[in-house]
Amino acid sequence: MRVSKSMLSIIGVWLALAVWVLLVPSATFANSNNVELLQSGHELVDGKMMVTADVRVKYEENVSLLVVGYDAEGEIIEIKKEDHFIAGGQTKAIQLPMEHGEELQKVDVRALGSITEPYKVLEETTVAKRDQMEAVAAIKNGGKPQLINVVATAYNANGKVVEVRGTSNYVVENRVSIFKIHLDAVHEIDEVKFTVLTDDRTYLVDSGTYMKDGQLVFTSVVKNGDQPQKLTARATPYSADGRELSIQTAADFIEANRLFNHRLTIKDSNATRVAAKYYDETGKQEIEKRGTLVTVNGKGVAMEQSPVNLEGNVVVPIRAITEAMGAGLEWEQETRSVTVTRGNRVIKLQNGSEIAYVDGQEITLAVPPQIINNHTMVPIRFISEALGAQVFWDQNSQTVLIVR
Question: Which of 5, 247, 291, 380 has a CA that sits 20 to 30 A from residue 365's CA?
Fold first, then answer.
């Protein structure tokens, strides 16, 4: 059989297309236009609200169905989710029961595809119960499995922290996990804020006190690092006149990257406040409270100088961040400038100058590099993106997430 030139051309195009489909990762297709919620509905069945949804995808993807239920006052009282793999070009009918039934006056249904962020907080709420308050957060994971820690910090009407509790869950890629945290200081709580932690550092997240049955209760959360260890808490209560009362201690063995939930009922009824210190397994190294965190692919970046917020821009020690990203750094004392290299990429910056150069191309910085406590500080978004990484900022958790 003789094949014409036009036939060969068509065959070549199809072969090229086939190779392209094989070589391009499936994540290429995971965009906001890939997942479509065709229709949804809900009805009461045996006291439960049964939600149904038809979801279609153009290309295969792990799809998360998120359902948020509201009461008559417009408050979120229930969050449910279902994760399903849907083959390309297929439509899947999904059913999901909501426990609150007739209490639900409105139901919001969302079909979610993959995300580019390491994680994303979809919804958060609190539900008051008889003796407890339940803090609930729905979080969608990014493209790799990881342990996600969520901390709920409760404040009273004066902005004082009254209770801190956390929970952990290992979440596979492109799935949604719903975190539920029970808080006991229900009558003192005015507001709850959530903190998401996925790094590998050790630090005190926060602490607070509240009254329960006439006694002072102290709670705190410590995030453990990448090695399992026994953590020790040393709590010192004080009376209203500043007198030190009997010290109480507690210890617990914590797995790597998980949370130490410390809850202590103060025995002395004269106690009005508590000061606590935390130590690693040696009993010598005190654990400090966290500040702004920086992670590269989930690994916390150790910094002698903490990140600083300048005019809404986070600046960090350039040496710490470039070393964490596998880049070289040269300092020129005479001009007070630095040169960063990674592969063929060359970045030049000068202290005090808003002009930087990336492979010879001039870039204007939001804030100039400057020396703080003998460390050259540079805008983290600029240096990370110049080295080919993506940068995400989690406002609630005060964390810079760099993904290479």
Answer: 291
